[in-house]
Design brief:
By secondary structure, the protein is an alpha/beta fold. It is built from 8 helices and 7 strands; from the N terminus they run H-H-E-H-E-H-E-E-H-E-H-H-H-E-E. Strands 3-2-1-4-5-7-6 form a 7-stranded mixed β-sheet, sandwiched between helices. The longest helix is centred in the C-terminal third of the chain and has 21 residues, at 159-179. The radius of gyration is 17 Å and the shape is globular.
Length: 239
């Protein structure tokens, strides 16, 4: 199958937004893993006085993880899917959270400006046409010393991990999504992970974008070897 990209992918997420929360809730550890990845940013407790960019926020699961770990931080949450973003914005957040409809490639056009103290991006980069361009944008909106955490499906390179991923997708996720009318998006999900950078390659891509202290950290459960947290620091002047 051909991967969905740009407007086609946003439209598929728009359609899937009505059932997305129910599907991810059935994924063991999904929300706990997001919170773990936020904690791996290593930011001060509660996030007082910090600005955090939630890039590719979807229906707000990543936003909720940031809010849980850093309740005092100011959060800007961005997504290219209007449907997903509407679901996120409709949830009760209180003060300090704003939502912006924009592709990750066009943050400044949508009025999203740095400097941010941290950028958190969950399940985003494998869906991008040009991940290097978005990494450059992320680098530019972070202040010196700013932190990046990418929470992403990025296989370890072991054949067993690819086999588990395929089994879960074809045996559980895709049949359920097809019944809900979202088969194309979840077929894309399987293929996007298989075609994306393996973990060591993605870490090298982050270093190539000018980040330092890049680390690749595994997550527990069935996602071990399939989902990783990539953490890095922006140092030096703007590029």
């Amino acid at each position: 199958m051909t991967l969905l990209r740009d407007e086609d992918l946003a439209a598929a997420f728009d359609h899937a937004s009505r059932t997305y929360d129910a599907l991810v809730a059935a994924n063991p550890g999904y929300h706990a893993h997001l919170r773990r990845s936020v904690r791996r940013l290593g930011l001060p407790a509660h996030g007082e006085g910090l600005r955090v960019l939630d890039l590719g926020c979807g229906t707000g699961a990543s936003t909720a993880a940031i809010r849980s770990v850093l309740p005092a931080a100011e959060i800007t949450a961005v997504d290219a899917s209007a449907g997903m973003l509407a679901r996120a914005a409709a949830k009760p957040w209180g003060d300090g959270v704003r939502f912006v409809h924009a592709p990750a490639e066009f943050l400044t056009d949508a009025g999203v400006h740095g400097p941010f103290d941290a950028v958190f991006a969950a399940y985003l980069f494998r869906n991008l046409t040009d991940p290097d361009a978005v990494l450059a944008t992320v680098h530019s909106v972070l202040g010196p010393g700013g932190r990046l955490a990418v929470h992403e499906y990025s296989l370890s390179g072991r054949r067993a991990d690819r086999a588990v991923w395929t089994l879960v997708c074809r045996g559980i996720v895709q049949p359920a999504a097809t019944l809900l009318g979202d088969g194309p998006l979840y077929r894309h999900l399987w293929r996007s992970v298989v075609d994306f950078d393996q973990a060591d390659r993605f870490a090298a891509r982050i270093r190539g974008a000018g980040f330092d202290k890049v680390r690749t950290l595994p997550l527990p459960g069935w996602q071990t070897g399939i989902t990783h947290t990539f953490v890095a620091t922006r140092t030096g002047a703007s590029r």
